[in-house]
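Notes from the 1:1 (GR / supervisor)

We went over the backlog. Supervisor wanted to see one worked example end to end before approving the batch request, so GR pasted a single chain during the call. The sequence is below; no edits were made to it. Supervisor asked that the structure be written out right there so they could see what the output format looks like.
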Amino acid sequence: MIILGIETSCDETSAAIIEGKNEEIFLKSNIVASSMETHIKTGGIIPENAAREQIKFIIPVIQEALRKAEMKINDIDSLAVTFGPGLIGSLLVGVETIKTLSFVLKKPIIPVNHMIGHVYANFVSEISKPESRIDFPAIALVVSGGHTDLLLFKNHNDYKLIGGTRDDAAGEAFDKIGRLLNLPYPGGPEIEKAAKNGNPKRFRFPRPLIGSADFDFSFSGLKTAVLRETQKIKILDKQITSDIALAAQDAIIDVLIKKTLKAAKKYNAKSILLSGGVAANQSLRDEFHLRSKIQDLKSKIFAPAKSLCTDNAAMIATASYFNQNPKSWKEVSADPELYFQ
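Structure output shown during the call:
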């Protein structure tokens, strides 16, 4: 099956083409147009600006995805699109475009929950070797600017939310802490960069909810702790910035790993799937592997290629392949408040 996927939930505009055969996914093309330079100037995403840029990008990215895949639009068997959650203006760009294609081509649409899409970035590879096969049950950590969630997957299209964020998501905390440290937007990659030169003994910040019996997350308190520390310091020089960045990153990583490994142990997970923009953090990846070995955890740990951690259409097309629920164009609409169904 050949699927054209579209992703426009926030500030990226992406189109991708995959070919699915049994349990293997062959990525033919994945084109992403970013408006990040616009958002860097404003220190964050202004929804109206994001949507305006996506209107400009949407047709060119589809054309480029087809060109790179060496395909014509009539070669497509099915269409996939993010229908939520996200910014309403951005979502409408993708949803209305895919509905038009569906009407003209008479092809079905498979609507995809953006957060589930992130999980399926882990499946964008040829799953032919036993050691690279994702087995169920699986624990999925979805960690991004707007979400920090843990899901239990018993199989494809059979999942449930077991823990979520009570306030700030991990990615949001990274961005806010980045602003406190006068680092450029987005904060996550900049904090990771600064943390490489940090002194691990200088600061230690709280790990909210790390010992709670549930699988929920909270990072608002961590942000407040960093704020108070920065207010005590008269001059925030490069070294102090690096030291705080490392301490904040360590606190976030510590909570994410402890909660995820605890869930994997409780549910006897065969696989742990990292996903979302924060999953591109190399320290997070390294610590997951290290601590799983220390705890002698049998779960295999998976993380997407870093280019597939941020928003992209390849993950949306892949999620649609494994969770096929085709609908008529008349039945598909944007849902900015969508959570986990």
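Supervisor's comment: Residues 200 and 339 are 37 Å apart (CA to CA).
Batch request approved.
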